Amino acid sequence: MTMSAGSSASYSCKQSGIKIRKREDVPHLDTCDTVTETTQMETQRAPMCVLVTGGTGLVGRAIEQVVQAQGGCGEVEQWIFLSSQDADLRDLAETRAVFKKHRPTHVIHLAAMVGGLFRNMRENLDFWRNNIHINDNVLQTAHEMGVVKVVSCLSTCIFPDKTTYPIDETMIHNGPPHNSNFGYSYAKRMIDVQNRAYFQQHGRRFTAVIPTNVFGPHDNFNIEDGHVLPGLIHKAYIAHKEGSPLQVWGTGTPRRQFIYSLDLARLFVWVLREYDEIDPIILSVGEEEEVSIKEVAESVVEALGFKGQVVFDTSKADGQFKKTASNAKLRRHLPDFTFTPFAQAVKETCDWFVANYDTARK
Fold first, then answer.
1. Mean of the per-residue pLDDT values of the chain
2. DSSP letter (8 states) at residue 64
3. How many Å apart are CA 58 and CA 130, to the nearest integer?
4. Is residue 39's pLDDT more than 80?
5. Is there a contact between 157 and 178 (Cβ–Cβ < 8 Å)?
6. Where are the beta strands (DSSP E) in the chain?
7. What is the pLDDT of residue 74?
């Protein structure tokens, strides 16, 4: 099961670059859960302790990098990045134990069983059961321990297969998801159901983000079971070294919006600190940034300097043709947010993979 690898990391950060919100600005907080802002930050109380599940995976590593780069805030925020070695979150007792150990006030929930199209098609039941257990254990334990805020990670695959485009946050439950990954999709949808129920019954500020296809350093580059872009990077790397053709599975016509993991990480941190709605929010580049799988392959080929033949294996399934998402809600909140250009992000990811080939997940 993919949740993350390695051991947990824990550190506090400096005060620069952090916006500390006043107690009266944040609803439903217990007295020990936040800090009061003064001009000199002289009366800081009860630091915010952020527990990141799946903290050593693709998005967790990116969040850690962003928090470090921003400077953090010393006694104001402490960040703990969990790995699957710290606890099996499918097990309620282990989940409660790791929460009791770290006593978080806030949680970013990234841990999940994840995989690419073909693994989803093979293992829908496993994706359903494992993710349902993980999500219920994390959310219920957060509730039991009085966690102020949980931000969970969903996916655009949760949206109905038969729908109009662009999809937005109001359309999650309008119909069944694509049949190829219904187990994973329904399990992720249930996070939204639980978030609303915890708010209705207990006033909990649990919410979720819906990123489009995420990629970047520390991704899973497994060819058989990984997602399309890191899988293509790995295949192109091998083809380049061996002088063989690059085989792209499917027709290359499906279209996707991709978000660089470091951009997503910056948005995750913003959601944790500033976004107060229970309703989820789509984190994505705009509709105009959607690209075909053929264009993705071309970007990888250029980034790696591959000069060989590119062959499309049309006997392989394409999966869902498109799932174009609107980022209008995000833009209402952050109209000036700048995304890393796709070609630049692909190049940086390819460079990281080449430099870390021996240790990269694959």
1. 86
2. H
3. 19
4. no
5. yes
6. 9-13, 48-53, 74-81, 106-109, 149-153, 205-211, 213-215, 246-249, 255-256, 258-260, 281-283, 291-292, 310-313
7. 53
Per DSSP, 148 falls in state S
What distance in Å separates the CA atoms of residue 94 and residue 96, rounded to the nearest whole number?
Answer: 5
Q: Is 357 a catalytic residue?
A: no
Q: Look at residue 29 and tell me whether its pLDDT is greater than 50.
A: no
Q: Smallest Cα–Cα separation from 278: which of 30, 27, 59, 52?
A: 27
Q: Using CB atoms within 10 Å of the CB of residue 361, give its burial: 0 to 12 exposed, 13 to 18 middle, 19+ buried.
A: middle
Q: Are 18 and 240 in contact (CB under 8 A)?
A: no
What percent of the chain is predicted at pLDDT more than 70? Answer: 86
pLDDT in tens, 294-308: 999 999 999 999 999
**Reduced to 3 states, what is the DSSP secondary structure of residue 221?**
coil
What is the edge-to-edge ordering of all strands in the sheet holding 281-283?
Answer: 9-13, 74-81, 48-53, 106-109, 149-153, 205-211, 281-283
| 3-state SS assignment for residue 155 | coil
Question: Which candidate in 184, 198, 237, 275 is catalytic?
Answer: 184
